[in-house]
Design a protein that fits this description.
Layout (H helix, E strand, L loop, with lengths): L7 H4 L11 E5 L11 E7 L2 E8 L7 H5 L4 H8 L7 H16 L5 H30 L2 H22 L21 H23 L3 H7 L7 H6 L5 H4 L7 H4 L20 H26 L23 E4 L4 E5 L9 E3 L4 H7 L1 H4 L5 H11 L9
Antiparallel strand pairs: 1-2, 2-3, 4-5, 5-6
Helix pairs in contact: 3-4, 4-5, 5-6, 5-12, 5-15, 6-7, 7-12
Length: 383
């Protein structure tokens, strides 16, 4: 793989050797904007960064090892704790991998509900990103506004499944519950207000002098760098690659809905910020269409599947790329299959690695805004 050797600074090539007039500064893991689990060793000349070594391992929970002693249904709640800000996408990625393994066809209503959960969780994740990144840069009002809207969506998901952050609301074969009576009306009420709310965020930030100084022409990721490091999402699309897996390899019913792919060729912090704003508008567009689909579906929610899965013993049974994760299932031919689950290419891992190439040439204050726009979540970095 092109970027394999570039991961070596993570673990093997971390040294404290420095040139004359260089200072080594530990940025994190206690620093608030380093998310509590990232340590950056920055080599400085004055306040300019000349080398950057990301050091991870402060939240290691051994999830793949835990999976060796679980059947697949037992492991599903653990996927919530990877990218815990967008837990439904992890639930879905793992469930879809198992469904491919055993050849399950999910009922249409379950697909519709899954898409609702995925897009609502995408909005929650983007609002959380906006609120915390704005706070890191000093915009307290946007933090309060973003959490206000996110709280409404968390209440919606609590109405559906009883949980607010780690949902386990998507199951292998479908979903466990139909929508509660108030869900559609409450979601439409939120979506009707969302454009005005996004405009409020943009009015506060787009032309704010401090926001522009901290974001424009800072943290520029070229198209080549983004592809080399395996960047995904806004990190990739802001660097000139108009690629969205929902369009390129559609799953569930994404091939039946209309939406655009926001992208930019500027590659800086500001471009990534604008993409997050645009993607929230596209998620709202998708949700309106999915809500209309729901009315025309039969009430079936779960596929018929055997209680235990008997699979032949081969090396790689199936693999699935989801919105947030890449799951590979390995079975040992047991009944039930007690195999292994690998999550080898979590996006936040690569987005942490790119800091090695991205930070040199910038200054200490830039580190905060750059980490913010990478949107790294350490639950999927240190598994």
């Amino acid at each position: 793989m092109q970027h394999k050797n570039r991961l070596r600074p993570f673990f093997e090539n971390i040294t404290f050797e420095r040139e004359d007039n260089e200072l080594i500064l530990n940025f994190g893991p206690q620093h608030p904007s380093s998310h509590g689990q990232l340590r950056l060793m920055l080599h400085l000349q004055q306040e300019q960064i000349v080398k950057a070594h990301p050091d991870v391992g402060y939240l290691h929970r051994g999830m793949e090892k835990m999976a060796e002693n679980m059947i697949y249904n037992e492991f599903l709640p653990t996927t919530d704790r990877m990218d815990y800000i967008a837990s439904s996408s992890n639930n879905y990625g793992f469930a879809l991998a198992v469904e491919k393994l055993i050849g399950l066809e999910v009922p249409r209503r379950a697909k519709v509900i899954r898409m609702m959960l995925l897009e609502v969780n995408r909005l929650m994740s983007h609002l959380f990103w906006l609120a915390t990144t704005a706070l890191d840069v000093g915009a307290m009002t946007v933090f309060l506004y973003g959490f206000r809207e996110r709280e409404y969506l968390m209440d919606l998901l609590e109405d559906y499944c009883g949980a607010r952050l780690t949902h386990s609301a998507i199951r292998i074969g479908g979903v466990p519950l139909d929508l509660p009576d108030n869900f559609i009306a409450d979601l439409k009420k939120f979506l009707d207000k969302l454009p005005a709310n996004i405009k409020d965020y943009e009015d506060l930030l787009d032309t704010n002098r401090i926001w522009q100084m901290r974001m424009e022409d800072v943290g520029v990721i070229s198209k080549e760098m983004a592809l080399s490091w395996g960047c995904t999402g806004p990190m990739l699309r802001a660097s000139g690659v108009k690629w969205d897996i929902r369009k390129e390899e559609p799953y569930e019913l994404y091939d039946e809905v209309e939406f655009d792919i926001p992208w930019s060729d500027k590659g800086d912090n500001y471009a990534r910020y604008k993409l997050y704003m645009a993607e929230m508008r596209e998620s709202a567009k998708i949700l309106y269409q999915v809500l209309d689909m729901y009315k025309d579906t039969s009430p079936e929610l779960m596929a018929h599947a055997p209680k235990y899965i008997s699979a032949p013993k081969i090396d790689i049974m199936t693999q699935n790329y989801s919105l947030m994760q890449h799951f590979v299932l390995v079975t040992q031919g047991m009944r039930p299959p007690v195999g292994e689950v690998y999550v080898p290419t979590a996006p936040s891992f690569w987005h942490t690695g790119v800091l090695t190439d991205l930070l040199p040439g910038h200054y200490i204050p830039d580190v905060v805004s750059i980490i913010g726009t990478t949107n790294i979540v350490f639950g999927e970095v240190d598994r």
